[in-house]
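Whether sequence alone determines local backbone shape is best considered at the level of individual chains. When preparing material for the folding task, we compiled for one chain both its residues and its backbone structure tokens. No coordinates are needed to read the tokens, only the vocabulary itself. For completeness, the protein is quoted in full, as a sequence line and a line of structure tokens:
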Amino acid sequence: MTICAFDIMPDRTDVASGDAPPEHGYRWVHFDLGDADLAGFLEAHVPSIPAAALSAPETRPRSDAFGDGLILNLRGVNMNADGPADRMVAVRMWVTAQLVVTVRVRRVFALDAMRVEAEQGKAPSTPMAFVNSLATRLMGRVQDTVFDLSERVDAMEDSVQDDDQPLPTELAEERRMAIRMRRYLAPQRDALVALVGTNSPLMAQGTRDLLREQANLAKLAVEELEGLIARMTAVQDHHTAQAALLQGHNGYVLSIVAAVFLPLGFVTGLFGVNVAGMPGLEAPWAFAALCASLAVMTVLAVWVLRRLKWI
């Protein structure tokens, strides 16, 4: 059973009825990939190659002309409760002059909004206007997500100004999010650019101009994500360098302390052996003399280290 099906005509939008799309207008049919009726519908109404693209379990963004139609796959930000935003949702599409078929795996809120508009009689007037409306909604949510991520990266960079601040705990996850989003948006950018350049008769000049703007937004989103990844890497490198510097300084201080006390430890260890023949065992001034010798050795060790420019 379809999620929804509408006959969209110049003067009105009706729930689809009958097997044939309207003579003046187009039919939009929306399926879930797990729908038992999907295979039969595709066999009856869609050529085999686009049908295989619509029913593929895994997809990547693409835009390919096939006969008199277009095979389109687009990605959008995941707004469902089943995962993070960067687990992007996919929309598979087959677009002709009289038929638009969309297939989803997880709920796509942009398509839900278009469904509400269709129920209100406000559906896009042409198939390519439908594609542009969907691409605009998907890229709008992508832009919002990228901008939110950019603000969080700005806050992380502010922590670099204070060397006492620890490494942000969310840095690794935010960087993984940016990398995963770029993985899908880079081919989406290419798909939208290819769509703008297609010679399909479906593409009117006005729609081409609107889709070119969405392609530009995809380019900007990819460039921003690449910049964010580099900035987060710089934040990570800064904190790593600060930690290494602090560790090196602490190790240096411990080495200087060890260098000063090493000869003192040797002397006290030597005089600490409890055997006959040790000098000063019977002399009352021997302990004071030993302490004075240790003080002189300490001063001498510090002087030598300063001469060597170790301190």
